[in-house]
Structures are given as C-alpha cells and as structure tokens.
Amino acid sequence: MPTMLFRSNADRADWWRETVMGELPELDFRIWPDAGELADIDYALVWKPETGLLASLPNLRAIFSLGAGVDHIFADAELPKHVPVCRVINPNMALRMREWVVMQTLMHHRRHREYDRQQRMKVWQELPQPHAGERKVGMMGLGELGGDAARYLAMLGFDVAGWSRTPREVEGVTGYHGADGLDAFLARTEILICLLPLTDATRGIVNRGLLAKLPRGASFINAGRGGHVVEADLLAALDEGDISEASLDVFQTEPLPADSRFWDHPQVTVTPHIAAFSDPRALVDQVVENIRRDQAGDPLINTVDTGRGY
Ligand code: NDP
Ligand code: OXD
Prior knowledge:
Layout: E1 3-7, H1 13-23, E2 28-31, E3 43-46, E4 62-65, H2 71-74, E5 85-86, H3 91-109, H4 112-120, E6 136-140, H5 144-155, E7 159-164, E8 173-177, H6 178-187, E9 191-194, H7 208-211, E10 218-222, H8 231-239, E11 243-248, E12 268-270, H9 280-296
Parallel strand pairs: 1-2, 1-3, 3-4, 4-5, 6-7, 6-9, 7-8, 9-10, 10-11, 11-12
Helix pairs in contact: 1-9, 3-5
Bound molecules: NADPH dihydro-nicotinamide-adenine-dinucleotide phosphate and oxalic acid (OXD).
C-alpha cells in the first residue's frame, strides 16, 4: 500500500485526504506531524516543508509541490537531490495568472493610478495615451505562466518581448535570451513583468543595476517571487522617478510586514500573493496521475530539473 505524507500550512489537509483517497482508496494518507513510521512514506505532497523533513524520509520516491514554484522545496539545504520533484502545470493556473498580469499591465498602460488620484481630487483632465501597439512590454520568463501571459498581451496588441534562459518561441512575442540578450531586452521595455522561477541564477535579479537599464519612467510588475527583487533598490528607483510605478504580488517576507514602505507608497499596488491561486481542484489530478504512474513503473509528469532548480 503506497503512503503519502502531506505537509502544508496553507492548504486544507482534510480536503486533500478526502479527495486523493476518493481516487486512490488504497493510499495511506498521513498528515504532518502525524507521519507514523517515516520509512513507510513513498510520496510527499508539500508547501514550504521545514528543513530536513524530506531528508528524514528514507524511502521517498517523489516530492509533489503544492504550487507551480518549487523554490520552497529547493530552499531546504538538506533536500535529497536524487528524489524527483514534480510541480504544478495547469491551464487553470495559467488562466488566473493571465488575468492578473493583463489587469496590472492595462492599469499601468492606461494610467489608472493617475486617474484614480484625479478622481479623488475631482480633476477632469485627459492624459496623453499611446495605444497598445505603441507600448513596449517585456516579460522575464517565458514558461508556462510567463509565456501564456505574454501571448495574451500580444493578442491585445501590445508590442511584447520576452526574455528566457534558452531561446523560446511564443506567438507574437519577440524573443531575447541569456545574459547576452538581457540589456537589449531591458532597453526597449516600458512595462517590465517578472515571471521567473526563483533560483540561484535569478535571486535578486531585479536590482538597481537592472532597473537602471530600463528607459526612465518604466514600470514594474512582479508575480514571480519576492526574492527576485532587491526591495530597497526598487523603493529607491520609485522614489527617484526612475521607475514610475510597481504592482507587486510577492515579497521578500510574506505576509508583507506592517512597516513595509510598499503598503503606503503612492506608486505601488500591493496584492497578497494571489496572482494565481493554486486551486486544489485543478491540482489533485496530476498528483493522483503521478502516483498511478509511479506505481505502474511509468515516468512521472511535470518533473523539474533538480540541478537547475526549476
Ligand atoms: P516555468 O518553469 O514554466 O518557466 C520559467 C521561465 O523562466 C522559462 O522561460 C525559463 O527559461 C525562464 N528562466 C529561468 N531561469 C532563467 C534565467 N536564469 N535567465 C533567464 N530566464 C530564465 O515557470 P512558470 O511559468 O510555471 O512559473 C514561473 C514562476 O511563477 C514560478 O516559479 C513561481 O515562482 C511564480 N508563480 C507565482 C504565483 C503567484 O500567485 N504569484 C503562482 C504561480 C507561480 P527557459 O524557457 O529557457 O527554460
Ligand atoms: C505557486 C504560487 O508557486 O502560488 O504556485 O506561488
């Protein structure tokens, strides 16, 4: 009988137990910290597991992330690197992310923040407004989520470019890649969006040096991870007008501390890590499928490259 350990403070353990066992009645579903005999555990279904937990499971066959991102798993310095890690890839999540990214991009593009301010001051004044085709949007990360959102922004008529590690083709999107492609990508980008995974190569990538390579007055949208941004650098760029506004869904520390300047900054929109909610109804099928595959000796789906970290 296969055994799974569930560990998350952000997800409903009882719902997962009932739903997974509805599909796999023979599964022994255990909820941390009631793990029982650790040598029994075949699979771990996790969000932000504590350091050393996964290493303490000697017969672990696969780790399932309860999200699209896996940085919360690779953050564990004791992670057993030989165990495959699977993440969420799902049209439901791409749809949700697309909505948030398109909404924020349109709000920047159509100067919503300024009209909001004007409304509060009862000012009736038209502001200059380029059309979407005259607006250069840049997407960092052209994967499942960034690639999808970039494609939809292009369909809205924006002039969209994307930046990835390796060359990627996304319909309607001009591709740049690698360290060599970054400066040219930034130089043409007026609205910069980050949908990178958080890895050793991308941590702190949005810093003063990178922001300075954007045209003055460009804006920034982050739905990747807080760890991509050097927050003090972004605040300085906002204060000095190098960056005109920012929409931030993710932060170095979550929940965002009450004393963070982002809460009150007149040029910043804060949302509480909700850009693409991980809907458990959309996630459960791939967990069940992977257990069935593993039990049948078939390859797992949605595995990540443990060397690359995404
Ligand atoms: P993918 O793994 O599908 O795509 C990652 C993209 O980033 C790829 O295009 C990849 O390049 C590129 N990339 C990775 N490393 C580098 C690098 N060093 N330099 C340049 N490009 C790089 O990820 P997803 O699109 O599924 O998800 C992206 C992230 O979104 C997640 O990791 C998570 O952090 C975040 N997220 C946030 C949510 C929220 O609610 N705010 C919800 C869900 C996810 P290449 O194509 O060459 O491999
Ligand atoms: C995820 C997230 O990675 O919600 O799925 O951030």
